[in-house]
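User: Okay, second chain of the day. Same drill as before: sequence in, C-alpha cells out.
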Amino acid sequence: KKNLYKLYLVILILIPIVLLILPAVFFDKGESICLSVFFDIECYACGLTRAIQHLIHLDFSIGYEYNKLSIFVFPLLIVSHSGEIKLFLEVFKALLTVLIFINYIVHINQ
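Assistant: Same drill. C-alpha cells below.
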C-alpha cells in the first residue's frame, strides 16, 4: 500500500509537467467523445479539455473560445490539485510519525 501512495504522488506531480510539455494544440485534433451528441442536448463540458490545455499554456482567448466556463474551472482545478498533494503529504507524514513511534516503542521494550 505504501508503494501505491508513492505512485499516486508521482502521478499527481507528473500530470501538470506532462501537460506543460505537450503543445497547446495537442488535444485540438480528433473527434469529440461527448455523449451529448446522442441525446441532442447542450453539454457544458464540451471543449473543456482543449480549453484547459490552452489555459495551461496561457492562451486565454483560445481557451475561452473552446469553453467559456474554462476561466472558472481552471482556477478550481489548480486549487483542487494542490489541495490533493497537500492532503497526500499530510497523510504520509502522519503515517510516518506513527511508524516512527511504533519503532521507538518496540526498541524501548528490547
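The longest helix spans residues 70-108.

User: Thanks, on to the next one.
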